[in-house]
Amino acid sequence: MGILNVTPDSFSDGGCFMDPARAVARGEELAAEGAELIDVGGESTRPGAAPVDEAEELRRVIPVVRALASRTRAVISVDTRKAGVARAALDAGAGIINDIEAHRTDRELWKAVAAAGAGYVLMHMQGTPQTMQVDPRYDDVVAEVGGFFRERLRHLEEAGVQRDQVLLDPGIGFGKTLEHILALIRGLGVISALDRPILLGVSRKSFIGRLFGAEPQQRLGASLACALWAAGLGAGVFRVHDVAETVQALRMMEILKQRT
Ligand code: 7PJ
Fold first, then answer.
1. Distance from the alpha carbon of residue 157 to the mean position of ligand 1, in angstroms
2. Can you tell me the distance from the alpha carbon of 199 to that of 39, in angstroms, rounded to the nearest whole number?
3. How far does residue 139's CA lie from ligand 1's centre (Å)?
4. Residue 50 gets which letter from DSSP?
5. Who contacts 78 (Cβ-Cβ below 8 Å, separation ≥6)?
6. Which tens digit of pLDDT belongs to each residue from 213-226?
7. Which of 219, 239, 251, 257 is catalytic?
8. Ligand 1 atom 3: residue of nearest CA
9. Is there a catalytic annotation at residue 205?
10. E strand or H helix at 2, and its extent?
């Protein structure tokens, strides 16, 4: 899954793709590098980011979704917390809604996903983007994230979203300390047991900066190491900035696993 932020303020590529033509060109590039999914986001979720109103988010996201859905073979995912944006994006050709709030703010969103029969990324977050990094606490982070998925999967089914529409994402960096993040990545096997595809978003994240003192553009090595580790524990979708490098690393691992 290649990341395409059409925001002025995302941490790694904010402001690069605000012009729709440039955003579409970048999406086509991600697809050419081997992305099977492209995650288009019009609202930054970094701690303290300014909220974006619906009209502005629609204006940023929908033209890009429409163009990429018709011009690439990639499935378009839309990173939104708003039902109105989700509905418009699905109409414009998106196939997946990536809802980092797990519908805490907008109960209509699940109905839109159910009506379209679309894919749905169910991501764990403790708190809200404004508060999540203040003082995250867990007794057992792996067990608690697993419990959250079980509970939400039940609610999703009640709302008409079937299990086979859902991908599970532990939400790396969303209300987690460095220790929580490492425990979750080490413990992904527990989440694999829920028998839904796992999506992992570690690419260039700040915990890598904490470990190695590296700037976002210098975090590829650790991002790849996490992806390969997670692939070994059953993760199947990797939300990344560096698509070509990640595809090459995962293909290499597949080659090494083949016994002829
Ligand atoms: C994630 C995301 C993630 C999902 C962001 C960043 C912060 N959506 N949106 N999973 N991260 N599903 O890219 O560093 O980990 S925004």
1. 24
2. 12
3. 24
4. P
5. 39, 40, 41, 61, 65, 85, 86, 89, 94, 96, 97, 98
6. 999 999 999 999 99
7. 239
8. 201
9. yes
10. strand 2-5
